[in-house]
């Protein structure tokens, strides 16, 4: 429980994927304690049963939320889902990814120069779309992500590195949109706590600009951006 609290209460922005690997393990530990408590009743067993009931109620709701955010976390992907749920999520991912990839292609066309070469490249791509090759290739990119080894990595750095690869543009855009779903409210609550100490009873006449500067300097110093 201490490790779970440390991870979920950190300021490094735990993801929905983290919830999906933490909750099942905690519930299993508590279930074991409940079984031990049935044979040898104890205060510890009673506490475990109450904790299990409360957390299981939370998990009943959380496990069916934000599936896309879980899958787009390279630390978890599909590993926390059963076979039936995994198949449903794969289908949802394929359909959503095609929409993002097409929007990305259209954006690239709009931003490209109107040269003769680009004219023919666009028509060649439309021929591929008609033949169904486009959908096939998009599925290949997603399958490549699913089949790659799960990594113990920084989620944002993972997708930042892949956003430079044009094949992953649509998937990286999906990650940027869906990974904004936070697992806990700890990070935002910490900001309020910092503000409370910055604007204290003895420093209650700071201007808006000075407050903003103070908070930025503190954040940059702790992140190692400035010395």
What can you see in these coordinates?
The protein is mostly helical. It has three domains: 2-65, no CATH class; 83-178, no CATH class; 186-222, no CATH class. The chain has eleven helices and no strands. Helix 5 (83-111) packs across helix 7. It is flat. The model has no long low-confidence stretch (mean pLDDT 79).
> How many beta strands in the DSSP annotation?
0
Radius of gyration: 24 Å
Kindly name the structural category.
mainly alpha
Shape: flat
How far apart the termini lie comes to 35 Å
Topology:
Elements: H1 2-8, H2 16-39, H3 43-62, H4 67-71, H5 83-111, H6 116-131, H7 133-147, H8 155-162, H9 169-178, H10 186-198, H11 208-222
Provide tags for this entry.
227 residues; mainly alpha; 3 domains
Summarize the structure.
With 227 residues, the protein is mostly helical.
